[in-house]
Specification:
There is one protein chain. With about 80 residues, the chain is mainly α. The chain is about 65% helix and about 0% strand. It contains five helices and no strands. The protein is globular and about 30 Å long.
């Protein structure tokens, strides 16, 4: 049996934690509302691909290459 991939919401929360940002700070960095970020993190709304790319870019900007690579790998096809 293969391991289950984490949900997109979990990946987003993990990325935010790796960046050590609050929801408010992360939403501002992504140029989305806090409510939208909360909906993404709780799987209440589908995440636009441009937002996934922006999260990966934020991780790379902060030199969190390992986390960015993991995020990219896990998000492929979503």
């Amino acid at each position: 049996m293969s391991a289950r991939k984490p949900t997109t919401g979990v990946l987003i929360r993990e990325a935010r934690a790796a960046l050590n940002l609050t929801r408010e700070q992360f939403a501002a960095a992504l140029r989305i509302s806090v409510r939208t970020l909360a909906e993404y993190e709780t799987e209440a709304a589908p995440v636009r691909p441009v937002v996934l790319q922006a999260i990966e870019n934020q991780l790379r900007r902060m030199r969190l290459t390992k986390e960015a690579d993991k995020f990219q790998d896990q998000c492929e096809g979503r």
